[in-house]
Amino acid sequence: MHMNELRQHTQPSGTEWAFTWFVRILALVALASGVFYWIRLIGIQPGLLWRFDLMPWPWQTAVVALAVLMPVAATGLWMRAPWGPVLWFVAALGEIAIYSVFSRHFEYKPLTVGFNAACIVIFIAFRILLFFEKRRQARASLPI
Q1: Cα gap 86→143, rounded to integer Å
Q2: What are the start-end ranges of the H helices in 1-109?
Q3: Where is 56: in which H helix or E strand?
Q4: Cα torsion 119, 89, 20, 16: sign
Q5: Long-range contacts of range 81-89, CB-CB < 8 Å, 24 or more positions apart?
């Protein structure tokens, strides 16, 4: 194998580089979201939905689940671990559900729903692009 071919296989493509940065930014957003839910749990601010003991039980359940899922998912996303996106998908779908489908019991947050939905679509689009890119590279490296 020539040195140029070897170098070409070891350097990440533009798509891989963009995907890595997208996932890292997503990890920072998930970490910030996790901190937000932890602030709700420990009750720093006064108010009905800002203290765990004053929250209705649906809020208690959602806040505890998201306070645990978001930081762990952020860690997995940052490390590019295979379980990171799985946990993030669960947390993002949970947020989409509570802030849209079950907004009667929680609250309606169209920006959170839209952001999570857009990130899911972008993530899936990146994975499809990376799949086709790797398949094209594999076909190019096969001897004829």
Answers
A1: 36
A2: 3-10, 14-42, 57-79, 83-96
A3: none
A4: negative
A5: 84/23, 84/27, 85/23, 85/123, 88/26, 88/30, 89/120
Q: Looking up tokens 């170098």, which residue turns up? A: 7
Give the pLDDT score at 5: 56
Query: Residue 60 and residue 49: Cα distance in Å, rounded?
Result: 9
For the chain, the domains span 17-141
> Among residues 87, 63, 94, 62, which one has the least CA distance to residue 73?
87
* Rounded-to-integer distance, Cα 141 and Cα 63, Å: 49
How confident is the model over 48-72, as pLDDT tens digits? 677 888 888 898 899 999 999 999 9
Beta-carbon count within 10 A of 2 CB: 7
Q: What is the model's pTM?
A: 0.83
